[in-house]
Each structure stands twice: as C-alpha cells, then as structure tokens.
Amino acid sequence: MVRIRLRRVGRKNAPMYRIVVADSQSPRDGRFIEVIGQYAPRETPTDGAKTGRLSIEVDRAHHWLDVGAQPSDTVRSLLRRAGVLKVRHEARVASKRQVGAVPIRDDSERGAAGDD
To answer: Which of 12, 25, 71, 92 is deepest in the core (most CB within 10 A)?
Structure first.
C-alpha cells in the first residue's frame, strides 16, 4: 500500500519533515517515491496558523490521493490545514449533487409542450 507520510530531516532539536509518498513497508527515513511538501513545526508561521511552516505541492497531493495513497494521521491533519482535503470534499459533494439533480422546467416550457 502506498502511504503519504512524514520523513524527518534536520538536526538534533530542530526537526523538519518532508511530506513523502512511500510504500508502507519502507522505513520512516528510508526509500520513498516522491517528495510532495515540507513541514517545519518550529518555524514561525506566516499565514497565522498556530504552529509551523507548511508547504505542499497541491496538484501532486491530489494526484496521489486520486490513485489511492493513504495519508498518515499527521499528514491528514496537515493536508486539512492546507485546504487540500476541503477542495476534494467539495468536488466530491458537487459531483454527487449534480448526478442526483433534477432539471427545473420553466412555465414557458410546460406551456409549449402542452399546446400540441
């Protein structure tokens, strides 16, 4: 199974994490498929978030989620904070609503169809 998870980099007492796509069998800091972002929990955020600096390649995150990669719990919360999961949810809800929607007919259409 392919997972989206954190890979620790940085020095002692100054953690920094890369958000990577890796096989679930690989070790935490071992082999990975692709780096899709970075998370620095100790740096001062610029966007008003509570903790850390976060940067994610949103298009690559969508790609890997679309092909079935499962995010770890921590990465899921980071994706939620970046707005990736909200966009996916809204797109999924919109497509379901469009499939189940019944088109509205105007009175003029009803009158034109009933005049025959």
So the answer is: 71
CA distance 116 to 110: 11
What strands, in cross-sheet order, belong to the sheet with 14-23?
A: 53-56, 34-40, 14-23, 2-11, 70-71
Which among 29, 30, 24 has a CA at the least distance from the CA of 4? Answer: 24
pTM of the model: 0.74
Find out if CATH 3.30.1320.10 is the number for domain 2-101: yes
* 74: enclosing H helix or E strand: helix 73-82
Cβ-in-10-Å burial (0-12, 13-18, 19+) of 94 comes to exposed
Q: In the predicted model, what is the mean pLDDT of the chain?
A: 84
